[in-house]
């Protein structure tokens, strides 16, 4: 483990410890619990059902975005699944629609993968749950490791770009010129990464004989495949985040007895904290601090903001774990073609 990784993990532990210290030492624990209970009581059964339905819809939108990218990924029955691409013919294993049988990957299987991945990301420390995504893509659908990792990277980059662009639109008291520059920088990065992947520098081809050159070329090719349907994936991502932010804003406004605009500021704060490279364990500490910081710009006291964001965080984790558990029990894992191929391979 490198020094930088160790320092990041220590900082993550400190962030979570700070939240625990605030809750335990910031006053009478019974009073703190009573305050949390009073805030939670502001949400009635119908509103709670609406929030759960909204989060369920975001899960479907996220799964739809992944399904749109990987619905063609099913190995032909005569071809065994491979964990990694062979030395030659790498273009065929990157999953172009013409190289794999279409229609074998079921949406239910992708939904199961997405929900399990979401649950793991929410509870495992130090973002280690992210590994679930490429591992399950490879095991269930035969997606090569490099392709799966590139897909995860592009998925998270799209999330970050959308959150950053929306943050620029709603950030309070931001000069118009700076707001425009912020959005332009996000749009430039969102365009530049797929453009680089699809139109790589010719120098990489010349350096492909080196180990580093082959690695970069392989990853660029995988990223180019992942960004092939970028237009549709942007629509899926925008729909998902618009609904998710509105749902979280609604929850915070109910918990705080504040306006939806104030709730939106808090929702942007928790999501901006969620994309930071350093976070608390399972997000605890940084998540609440990010939301409370932006709620302060709307006159919400820090303690009130921390309480509301803590409840929201627990609700998000409860939804993620419940959905992940139901998916693991009720939804199919492998597609029929992948399952039969795996059986033939082990025979």
Description of the molecule:
This protein is an all-alpha fold and 347 residues long. The chain has one domain. 73% of the residues lie in helices and 0% in strands. It contains 15 helices and no strands. The radius of gyration is 22 Å and the shape is globular. It is a multi-pass membrane protein. InterPro entries: L-PG_synthase/AglD. The chain crosses the membrane at residues 42-61, 148-171, 177-197, 310-331. It is found in: Cell membrane. It comes from Viridibacterium curvum.
Key attributes of the depicted protein:
73% helix, 347 residues, Lysylphosphatidylglycerol synthase transmembrane domain-containing protein, mainly alpha, transmembrane helix, 0% strand, cell membrane, 15 helices
Helix content: over 70%
Structural class: mainly alpha
Oligomer: single chain
Shape: globular
- H/E order of the elements? HHHHHHHHHHHHHHH
Measured distance between first and last alpha carbons: 40 Å
The total tally of domains equals 1
* Proportion of strand residues: under 5%
Give me the count of strands.
Answer: 0
Q: Unreliable stretches, pLDDT < 50, 5 or more residues? A: 74-103, 336-347
Keywords: Cell membrane, Membrane, Transmembrane, Transmembrane helix
Pfam families: LPG_synthase_TM
Transmembrane segments: 42-61, 148-171, 177-197, 310-331
Membrane topology: Multi-pass membrane protein
């Amino acid at each position: 483990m490198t020094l930088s990784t160790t320092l990041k993990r220590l900082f993550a532990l400190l962030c979570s410890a700070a939240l625990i210290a605030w809750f335990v030492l910031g006053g009478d624990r019974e009073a703190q619990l009573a305050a949390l209970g009073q805030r939670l009581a502001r949400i009635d059964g119908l509103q709670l059902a609406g929030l759960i339905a909204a989060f369920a819809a975001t899960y479907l939108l996220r799964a739809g975005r992944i399904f749109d990218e990987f619905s063609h990924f099913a190995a032909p029955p005569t071809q065994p699944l491979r964990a990694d691409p062979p030395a030659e013919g790498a273009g065929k294993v990157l999953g172009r629609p013409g190289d794999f049988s279409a229609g074998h990957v079921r949406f239910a299987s992708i939904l199961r993968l997405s929900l399990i991945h979401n649950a793991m990301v929410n509870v495992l420390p130090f973002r280690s749950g992210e590994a679930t995504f490429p591992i399950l893509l490879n095991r269930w659908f035969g997606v090569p490791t490099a392709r799966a990792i590139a897909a995860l990277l592009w998925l998270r980059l799209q999330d970050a770009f959308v959150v950053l662009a929306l943050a620029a639109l709603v950030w309070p008291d931001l000069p118009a010129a700076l707001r425009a520059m912020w959005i332009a920088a996000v749009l430039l990065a969102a365009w530049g990464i797929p453009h680089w992947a699809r139109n790589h520098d010719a120098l990489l081809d010349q350096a492909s004989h080196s180990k580093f050159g082959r690695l970069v070329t392989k990853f660029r090719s995988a990223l180019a495949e992942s960004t092939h349907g970028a237009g549709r994936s942007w629509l899926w991502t925008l729909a998902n985040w618009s609904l998710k932010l509105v749902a979280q804003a609604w929850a915070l406004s109910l918990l705080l007895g504040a306006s939806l605009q104030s709730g939106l500021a808090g929702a942007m704060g928790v999501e901006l904290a969620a994309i930071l490279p350093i976070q608390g364990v399972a997000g605890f500490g940084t998540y609440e601090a990010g939301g409370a910081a932006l709620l302060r710009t709307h006159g919400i006291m820090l303690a009130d903001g921390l309480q509301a964001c803590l409840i929201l965080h627990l609700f998000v984790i409860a939804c993620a774990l419940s959905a992940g558990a139901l998916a693991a029990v009720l939804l199919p894992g492998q597609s029929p073609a992948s399952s039969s191929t795996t059986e033939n391979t082990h025979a």
